[in-house]
## 1
Amino acid sequence: MFQQKHLLDLESLSAEEITEILDTADSFRQVLERPIPKVPVLRAKTIANLFFEPSTRTRISFELAEKRLSADVVNFSASGSSVQKGETLRDTADNILAMKVDMIVMRHPDSGAARYLAQRVSASVINAGDGMHAHPTQALLDLLTLRQRLGDLQGRKVTIVGDIAHSRVARSNIWGLTKLGAEVTVCGPAPMIPADIETLGCQVEFDFGSAIGDADAVNVLRIQLERQKHQIFPGNREYARAFRLDREMLRRTPEHCIIMHPGPMNRDVEISTEVADGPRQVILDQVTNGVAVRMAVLYLVSGGVRETLGENLE
């Protein structure tokens, strides 16, 4: 049974805990197909969304998940807040907790911010992305999408291509995929591949064609320009020439290989429009699964039990 008070990363979860989240998300995915896609399982719970850096998909997905669970929602953004006047993260959280908040969903530009907050507040903390460290719910929705398309992930081959060095999505995916038995290969320009990335349990391949030749899925990441202290690659044209997933490169993958992207996409840089809109992409499935996964995380972190969930969904 899931007994975690917080969700800070996937590194600290067991394969059984990850599977329980995915199984719970499957149940909530069915709820989202109903004419009235709402259940009262978090009624009387108050959730604060603290976003200290820009977000569209993640913020909207969490807010929608919270409302689908009937929770009360408070939205906070650093822009126009006391943070701009010098208020610390701890003080901001303390003020929000004084309003009797049960859970905090936080995105922050600093790695480790979610863990820092979790150690200092009584509310449950869910990490919606912290610096270059982790983005656990993105990885979970990717895992759910993969499981729906490929079944058991044991022995499946997944290639993650792009700016691995600056990507919290890549790290979280590697932790989750390897725990569920998948074989992970990362690929990209040498300056965008951390020297120690293989210690996480993945393989490194610098030739794009070789990296995707036997892949069951390719997860395409964008260049994280906003997290780079200086430009580490000549430019978009050079990157696209070597690492863009276009129709020609797609021919090198097995016919069953699916294409993923966490967004936002830079079309015709890391992925061509014809592939991004093509029959093998599951990008919109990822978006839908994001709501179901976040519903599952919110429910389980709040103390919900998957075994009794069915009774609450009727």
## 2
Amino acid sequence: MSSSTNRMFEPDSFLLGTFASNCSSGMTVTKVPDRWDNSWANNLRLAKLLDDAGIDFMLPIARWIGYGGETNFHGSVLETMTWAAGLLAQTRAINVFATIHTVANHPVVVAKQLATLDQISGGRVGLNIVAGWNKPEYEALGLNLPDDHETRYGYAQEWFDVVTALWSRTESFDWEGRYFKLKNVLSEPRPSTRLPILNAAGSEQGRKFAVRNANFLFTPAIDPARSKHEVAALKEQATISGRSVDVLTFAHVVCRPTEREAKEYLQYCAQTHADWDAVDNLVRLQFAHAQSFPHDMLALIRDRMAAGHGGYPLTGTPEQVAEGIISLYEAGFRGTTLSFVDYVEEFPYFRDNVLPILEAHGIRRAQR
């Protein structure tokens, strides 16, 4: 693979993307009728809006069953590899990630799928690796979730080693590993450029995996002061390992002309009409099987789960939302995803009123 000019690797701009537009209700666990409809038509409309505005990437969530509650939050999800293929074929510059569960997708198949997407897009596809954490999803697939993170990430490591071998070797080879026994494999075509690799990790084993393999480690931002130390520690850990890893986070946007309007809408969606049964199912599963969020912040996280799946809140006027994004930049994050209650309806206001502030501050380049 040649060195990439992919915009995800360009160092002079704070990265912005969207998260979970392929999922019903997006990132907001709400019952309001104007919540996000994750239809293909809406995703394509959104992708074109983002592409025209110079937004850097779209990141999906891979789900196989919903979280219950009145809305069965994330019960409807567009599969991420095919979703990415469709969006990449109809956009010009934006990166689109496929989110892949290692246990549910064979590495030989995934290597070829991503190489195909590389050709479709001219080098704009990314890979988000999920080692697995959600026990009911394992059960839905007829699989057992290992109780220990060492086994999950051991499997994920060999899985990714197979993928990278397929992308780098030019002659057929055998693979005799702990989890994979392969005979006479070769992957043609191979990606033409370096694909951005993303991994969300909270456990010690997960972060070792991310530091070893990913270009971007994805982690929550509880508050910028706390995050500043965490990001610095993660980057130092990567440096000690001889690698450079950037850190991304995720945020939820409610942006209105006045602070009062924004707070009232957030109250309406994420308190008065939150799907609390689904929120509690989501929190219970996260805390039982994953280590994405610090357990000392449970009460705060429950509210944030309703508003934006635990994302950093960006609520207020365009100036206040921009200030929140700048605080993430100053904490050391390389970028953030954004979610909205209705992405297509709300993003244009963000585009027209927040992006110019970020550009004037010097953390985004004008691209429109």
